[in-house]
TrEMBL record:
Sequence similarity: Belongs to the class-I pyridoxal-phosphate-dependent aminotransferase family.
Keyword Coiled coil: yes
UniProt protein name: Aminotransferase
Subunit structure as annotated in this protein's UniProt entry: Homodimer.
Species whose genome carries this gene: Parachitinimonas caeni
Length: 399
């Protein structure tokens, strides 16, 4: 028997599978709402002007390509902390936040997971029901048992908050709770300020370890407003983790620009925690890549480029909101026969549309419109040219 003779074919990634089917579809008016990226109104992946300016400056400077420190570019790590915790954060000043550059938000989650596995090998990881599909796989591959906590209530198209609290309270102490810091993927349904306060209290009362996943800062209400959950946990005195990503907010998906931040009790504790995270990095990929993080650091540390980036981010945020408005209005015009105003309350790139798997299938076969079978659609893939077709098709499959 040769080495690979018994290797099983792994299941296909459902979203990548959808993209393949979309690419193979020959209809010229097909629309892909299954993706998880932001497109401009022209249907293109944007290259931000702030990024182009930083890239030009970097090329002109012709920097040598040495290794970075294991924890990444210091100016980048500091800029990440300021965005997440606020520039005037007492925790940062007290040396209680450890931040390391990571390979996107995914890489940050994995670094945190590997470190946590050494700290609390028996801990259970709880993720929202539903959650980003990679959360479960990622924590399971780090060796954890993964459970769901109640989150989305399909009947009310909002959070089953009583259910969520009950789930959190039932978890054993030391359990790790993965929370979407804003713009919940896949539902678009976030917690209110009061609900976040209660989640913080539940984590404290039950000795849980919060792990905030911040993949969309700036896509709901703005950079600082979207930092609300992180700031509430920062005020709580708890130890917690934050994975963050610039994939979406800088449109730098393929450059893999993210970070892991860990809040500790003291500067001295931070030094010990950092030494362990560096060990995880060193034994996985030694040190992070330079290009993307240096662009982000340049933009965030230059007042001019930062202002430009903030305006470009606001443009993305506003366009998504305009598409939510247009979708709701056009669905009504096309006689969808259902109240879709909940779409306006959802935040970020996604919307749980409430469409069934069967209706999603009909959208694809009859209309060439691709969405995830759960009914998740990417609002950031709607534009002024496809919105009418999408609304007409949704109304048709609902009749
Ligand atoms: N967490 C969530 C909730 C996400 O939606 C995503 C990206 N789709 C990630 C993490 C991963 O981000 P990245 O592409 O930067 O690895």
């Amino acid at each position: 028997m040769t080495l690979f003779a018994t290797v099983e074919l792994a299941p296909r990634d459902p979203i990548l599978g959808l993209n393949e089917a979309f690419n193979a579809d020959t209809r010229t008016d097909k629309v892909n709402l299954g993706v998880g990226v932001y497109f401009t109104d022209d249907g293109k992946l944007p290259l931000l002007r702030a990024v182009m300016a930083a890239e030009k400056a970097r090329l002109e400077a012709q920097p040598a390509r040495g290794y970075l420190p294991i924890e990444g570019i210091a100016a980048y790590d500091n800029a990440v902390q300021n965005l997440l915790f606020g520039a005037d954060s007492a925790l940062i000043q007290a040396g209680r936040v450890v931040t390391t550059q990571a390979l996107g938000g995914t890489g940050a989650l994995k670094l945190g997971a590997d470190f946590l596995k050494r700290l609390s090998p028996e801990a259970v990881v709880a993720i929202s029901d539903p959650s980003w599909e990679n959360h479960r796989a990622l924590f399971e591959s780090a060796g954890f048992k993964v459970e769901n906590y109640r989150y989305y209530d399909a009947a009310s198209q909002s959070v089953d908050f009583a259910g969520m609290l009950a789930s959190l309270k039932a978890l054993p102490a030391r359990s790790i709770v993965v929370l979407h810091a804003c713009c919940h993927n896949p539902t678009g349904v976030d917690l209110s300020t009061e609900q976040w306060q209660q989640v913080v209290a539940a984590c404290r009362d039950n000795g849980l370890t919060p792990f905030l996943d911040m993949a969309y800062q700036g896509f709901a209400d703005g950079i600082d407003a979207d930092g609300l959950a992180v700031r509430l946990f920062a005020d709580s005195g708890l130890d917690f983790f934050v994975s963050s990503s610039f994939s979406k907010s800088f449109s730098l998906y393929g450059e893999r620009v993210g970070a892991l931040s860990i809040v500790t009790q003291s500067r001295e504790e931070s030094a010990r925690v950092l030494s362990q995270i560096k060990r995880v990095i060193r034994t996985n990929y030694s040190n992070p890549p330079t290009h993307g993080a240096s662009l982000v650091a340049t933009v965030l540390n230059s007042p001019e480029l930062r202002a430009l980036w903030e305006s470009e981010l606001a443009e993305m945020r506003d366009r998504i909101k305009a598409m939510r408005q247009a979708l709701v209005q056009k669905l009504a015009e096309h006689g969808a026969g259902r109240d879709f105003s909940f779409v306006l309350q959802q935040r970020g790139m996604f919307s749980y549309s409430g469409l069934s798997a069967e209706q999603v299938e009909r959208l694809k076969t009859e209309h060439g419109i691709y969405a995830v079978s759960t009914g998740r659609i990417c609002v950031a893939a709607l534009n002024s040219r496809n919105i009418d077709r999408v609304a007409t098709a949704i109304a048709a499959v609902l009749r």
